[in-house]
Each structure stands twice: as structure tokens, then as C-alpha cells.
Amino acid sequence: MTPTLVRRHRPSSSSPESRARDWAEIQERMLVPLYEAVYERLEAGPGTRLLSLGCGSGLALLMAAARGATVSGVDPDGRRLALARERLLPEGGGAARLGHGAPESLMERDAPAFNLITAFDPLYCAGGSARGMAAALARAASCAERGAPVVLAGWGPQERCAASGALRVAARLADPMCAPARWRPSGRDDLENLAHEAGLRPDGSGRVACPYGYADMSSAVRGMLSTGAFDAAARATDEEQVTKELVEALHPYLRRDGTVWMPNVFRYLIARA
Fold first, then answer.
1. pTM of structure
2. How far apart are CA 265 and CA 158, in angstroms?
3. How far is CA 28 from the centre of its chain?
4. Which of 24, 42, 239, 248 could form a disulfide with 57 if both were Cys (CB 3.0 to 4.6 A apart)?
5. Number of C-alpha atoms within 13 angstroms, CB side, residue 265?
6. CA 238, CA 215: separation in Å to the nearest integer?
7. In contact, 12 and 222? CB cutoff 8 Å
């Protein structure tokens, strides 16, 4: 499935709540091909007990639930998590389990262990703490069946990711002392190294085309800003400067009809708990 161009959105404020909504309405769907490829390869469906680390506003969980999976997710962003609850637990119903804390908090007494864990958010490759991510993966794996697949995702080769130019803007403008928000190209073995540090055994990988398509420049800017990759840059300079330089970085991908189209490739690794 190729994501369609995101429809035009009214300008919004730059509040954290607006950023979370922009993620849910504009940006999150760009990773749909990644979600689909992983679920198809691992035959997710009835009988799958999924735990999603960094579940965001819940789109990947919603897709897994539509395939018949039992879904659970945790995310550190309470605003995105609130949107996931709107999607997955309408009017307090639904069977999904969502949490703001550690994955262990979702384990119910005498409940069967998870048999699929995903960590789709590629932004840990944006310079986030690999050690912290490895620790989170290790804790999650302790809640899974022995041998259960644990899926990690990250950016593909820099030359095949048009979004890398925009992400370099975030790195250049950010405070050099604020390492967690600085972007760097993904290394060939980053995912494998992370898996090994978490005590996991790599067992296959794949690449998926995930183009970023937007109906106009405004939607493109809002979508990119909603990822969180530009937060440190905005703190170090100001949002107006970040937006100006982001527009310049996106300009080569502006098409004659006003749409913005950036081809990207993501890589995923299947490891075993």
C-alpha cells in the first residue's frame, strides 16, 4: 500500500497538543508500508499478542487489531497516547491495553506472554540513547515468549532517504550539547548492534519504501515538525528560523502542482527474544 498525499490542513499553533495532532493526522501514516510489510511477513493475525514500544497515536496498533491481533502499546508522549486511546478505546470500550510507563505495567496476572514486539519509531537513530533503547527492549523481551520476534526499525541508506536533508537542518540548528536530538545517518549495523546490546538474536531483515507525500508545503512542514526531530533546534534558535530553513530543505521536493514528495527507504530487523 502506497500512502496517498495528505490532504491540506488548516494552519495550527505550535503547541505540543497541536504537534501530537499533526503527527496523528499528517505524519504517522507515512510509515504504513513499513507496518504492513512487517505484519505480512510475520503473519500477524488472530493469535498474535502484540506489544508496541513507542506506539505513538496508535495507527500501527489499529492496523494489527484489524488483522485480528490482540494489541498493547506504551509511549512516553502522553498527548500521542491520548490520541491512541481515542482511536482504540472509543467511549471506554475496546480490548487494547495502553500505558505511559514500562511495558511490564501492561502484563496482567496469569495473562499469556506477548508473542510479537515492535519498535517502529525510527527516531532513536536520530541520535537518541541506544543504551536506553536497548534497556527498554530487554525489559520488553522479558515479557515475551521465548523466541518471539522483536522488530526494530530505522532509516535506510542516506542516499535513498530524501528526508535526510531536512533532518540535517535539525542537527545543524540544535544545540551541539543536546546530543539526543541530533540526527546522524543510520549505520549499516545499527539495528544489529542495538539488538545484541538488548540481548536479542538477529534473525532476518528487510527494506521498505516509505515515501513522504504532502498536499502542500504547509502540511509538509507541520508533518516534519511533528516528529520531534526539530524540537531541540527550535529551543536553540527559534521556531521561525527552523521553519524557514526547513522550507528551504524541502523546496527541491516541491512539485509543480504544489505537492511535496520525498522518496525514503526504511530498514527493519527481526530479532528473537
1. 0.88
2. 9
3. 7
4. 24
5. 10
6. 26
7. yes
